[in-house]
Amino acid sequence: MAKIQVKTPIVELDGDEMTRIIWAMIKAKLIRPFLDVDLKYYDLGVQKRDETDDRITTEAGQAIKHYGVGVKCATITPDAERVSEYHLKKEWPSPNGQIRSILDGTVFRKPIIVRNITPAVRSWKKPIIIGRHAYGDIYRGVEMKVDRPGKVELVYTPADGPESRVLVHDFKGPGVVMGIHNLEKSIRSFARSCINYALSERIDLWFSMKDTISKKYHAFFKAVFAEEAAVAQADFDKVGIRYRYMLIDDAAAQMMKSEGNMLWAVSNYDGDVFSDVVASGFGSLGMMTSVLVSPDGKFEFEAAHGTVRRHYYEHLKGHPTSTNSVASIFAWTGGIKKRGEMDETPAVVAFAEKIEKAVIGCIEAGIVTKDLVPLMHPQPAGYQSTEGFIDAVAERLMAS
Ligand code: NAP
Ligand code: MG
């Protein structure tokens, strides 16, 4: 079979641990044999980031900006434990966080739904997509430990005007403080990305903050979102969808009782937490895809889970593993599909859809990794190894 030509390069970001192993298998068994694609490769494995003083991460982000489409493997965000485990120079910042700030994008997470897996939350019938703001808040926070009595203030010194101050707290003893910020430009493009995504998927858009408590910071987000939603009202009416603002706790409660089928836009931290809640509610982290969309239309696709550290340690001991590769496969297919759409090469889009069909076909035939077995009706008698599952997908792909 002749390979399908991909016109424009795709940026490939390699990663760490178990997902790095899966990533290589996917590339070797599902992509390379079928596609003639120029992959601009960046190794974001933690050792390479350390070796390059993390320049490689910035370069990878710039490459996505340049070429328009990237696919990313999960990576370690080092903490103190990882620094000693991998003998790193320091706790390098999260690569995802860095790429998000380079692209100023929004992360959308969408569960992969299959017939024979019912979500843990019984009312959920359709995907709940989380739109996570990808800039600022605690991810760009500055912090201080206060170890003795003293005053902490926020000081704003405008470039051309008198300074203003507010008291954070007059400490009588030890404590801790944090300063966080956000940018109108980023909030606005977040709102726009969410509106565009909701319109293109024809699903309601929810937005949640806590403006009853935070009457300036959170209220600012609410106001910017409301302005952008008002601009898009005619488009909402045209496709028959609604924009709703709700307090974050109210939205969380309503989300649990809903059928799904909405885009829930949330702040950076809420998105971090609720995307994991929604992912496990739908079944497995291994079945959650994630895409970072920039306001100027650049895309980075990845799995929503981490590097599956526990499985990697088993693998290193020579023990068999059964790690779900579905979300990583869908990172590749998402990127390939988007590349094909942007290049206007329908054969490329069709090939990515063929891989997805082969994956869904396997799962619906009961060919799955261990994590999915308890979620399935009927439950299959056994499960596949990490590699066995990918081989089964490759077999189906070749037969299709
Ligand atoms: P994790 O990789 O998300 O895995 C946590 C647990 O969830 C696993 O031990 C496993 O449960 C289950 N799981 C997740 N993905 C699975 C899959 N594909 N197949 C089967 N089971 C799966 O989190 P972690 O192991 O705590 O974190 C490891 C590293 O990932 C951390 O260093 C963190 O910085 C990084 N991380 C990266 C990203 C990213 O790059 N996008 C996101 C989150 C975390 P069982 O052990 O019960 O089988
Ligand atoms: Mg998280």
Commentary on this structure:
- It is built from 14 helices and 16 strands.
- With 400 residues, it is of the alpha/beta class.
- The mean pLDDT is 94.
- The site of magnesium ion (MG) has 2 residues, from helix 10.
Quick rundown:
The chain is of the alpha/beta class and 400 residues long. It is 43% helix and 20% strand. The relative contact order is 0.16.
Which features would summarize this protein structure in a list?
alpha/beta; 400 residues; single chain; 16 strands; binds NADP nicotinamide-adenine-dinucleotide phosphate; binds magnesium ion
List the helices and strands and how they pair.
Blueprint: E1 4-5, E2 10-14, H1 17-31, E3 35-36, E4 39-43, H2 46-51, H3 55-67, E5 69-72, H4 80-85, H5 95-103, E6 106-111, E7 128-133, E8 142-146, E9 150-156, E10 164-171, E11 175-179, H6 184-201, E12 204-209, H7 217-231, H8 233-239, E13 243-247, H9 248-257, E14 262-266, H10 268-282, E15 288-293, E16 299-303, H11 309-316, H12 326-343, H13 346-364, H14 386-399
Helix pairs in contact: 1-14, 3-5, 6-7, 12-13, 13-14
Series of secondary-structure elements, N-terminal to C-terminal: EEHEEHHEHHEEEEEEHEHHEHEHEEHHHH
Strand content: 15-25%
Bound molecules: NADP nicotinamide-adenine-dinucleotide phosphate, magnesium ion
| Structural class assignment | alpha/beta
Helix content, binned percent: 40-55%
Based on Cα principal axes, name the global outline.
Answer: globular
